[in-house]
Automatic annotation (TrEMBL):
<keyword id="KW-0677">Repeat</keyword>
<protein>
    <recommendedName>
        <fullName>MORN repeat-containing protein 3</fullName>
    </recommendedName>
</protein>
<feature type="compositionally biased region" description="Acidic residues">
    <location>
        <begin position="220"/>
        <end position="230"/>
    </location>
</feature>
<dbReference type="InterPro" id="IPR052472">
    <property type="entry name" value="MORN3"/>
</dbReference>
<dbReference type="InterPro" id="IPR003409">
    <property type="entry name" value="MORN"/>
</dbReference>
<dbReference type="Pfam" id="PF02493">
    <property type="entry name" value="MORN"/>
</dbReference>
<dbReference type="GO" id="GO:0001669">
    <property type="term" value="C:acrosomal vesicle"/>
</dbReference>
<keyword id="KW-0968">Cytoplasmic vesicle</keyword>
<comment type="function">
    <text>Assembles a suppression complex (suppresome) by tethering SIRT1 and MDM2 to regulate composite modifications of p53/TP53. Confers both deacetylation-mediated functional inactivation, by SIRT1, and ubiquitination-dependent degradation, by MDM2, of p53/TP53, promoting a proliferative and cell survival behaviors. May play a role in the regulation of spermatogenesis.</text>
</comment>
<feature type="region of interest" description="Disordered">
    <location>
        <begin position="206"/>
        <end position="230"/>
    </location>
</feature>
Length: 230
């Protein structure tokens, strides 16, 4: 009996539909089941390249770079004002795997904002924080809190320069009381000065100097003390 060869079965139609559904390279607008909307570039059916995401529930918008479905690169995140409905930027800067990473600026309620380095969505590295009461911290951060070396300048121009740990003054540091013309230099632990020395510092130029100057501590016979020590 001769061998009968049947033609190869035709490719299932759903294969063709699947290929057409794959989004890659070109810009597409896609709506999620929950109403979220994305308009931008794709790669292997994932958000990749430049694109804009709008979250329906909050109205938040992200415009910027994407990488394999996640915010990655440079972009800005904004939310609508609950009263005016106008969009206000919350963060502008660099991202990695959906989290703030690198240099960027975040705006907080009440006019506060931070500009500096981020890691894993937290302030880490060098940065400057502007607080609502007019004070400014500039220095090192770790896990969203001042840690390392930094300076805190208060609204009355008094300032602290020195060590920080977990958001509190910690280690050797100097506190300049420019309003009274004094300087305290010592060691802090968890925001509390443990020991140190207080001296007059620019007392003549201070707006509200203390009533009496701090007397200088001097040896009555420094040469004799040195001779005895030798």
């Amino acid at each position: 009996m001769p061998l009968v060869r049947f033609p190869a079965p035709a490719e299932p139609l759903w294969h063709e539909w699947d290929r057409k559904a794959q989004k890659s390279g070109l810009r597409h607008t896609v709506y999620a089941v929950n109403g979220d909307q994305y308009t931008g570039e794709w790669r292997d059916n994932l958000k990749h390249g430049k694109g804009t995401q709008i979250w329906k529930r909050t109205g938040a918008i992200y415009k910027g770079d994407w990488k394999f479905g996640k915010r990655d690169g440079y972009g800005s995140y904004s939310v609508p004002d609950p009263v005016t409905k106008e969009y206000k930027k919350v963060y502008t800067g660099w991202w990695k795997k959906n989290k703030k990473c690198g240099y960027g600026t975040t705006f907080y309620p009440g006019g506060e904002y931070y500009e500096g380095e981020w890691s894993g969505g937290q302030r880490s590295g060098w940065g400057r924080m502007y607080y609502g009461d007019g004070s400014i911290y500039e220095g090192q951060w770790l896990q969203d809190r001042p840690c390392g070396q930094g300076m805190l300048r208060l609204s009355n121009e008094n300032r602290y320069e020195g060590g920080w740990k977990e958001g509190k003054k910690h280690g050797p540091g100097k506190f300049f009381y420019l309003d009274t013309g004094q300087l305290f230099e010592g060691v802090w632990a968890a925001d509390i000065p443990k020991y140190g020395t207080m001296i007059d510092f620019g007392r003549d130029e201070a707006p509200t100097p203390t009533q009496y100057p701090i007397p200088k501590i001097e040896l009555a016979d420094p040469d004799g003390v040195l001779e005895e020590a030798q």
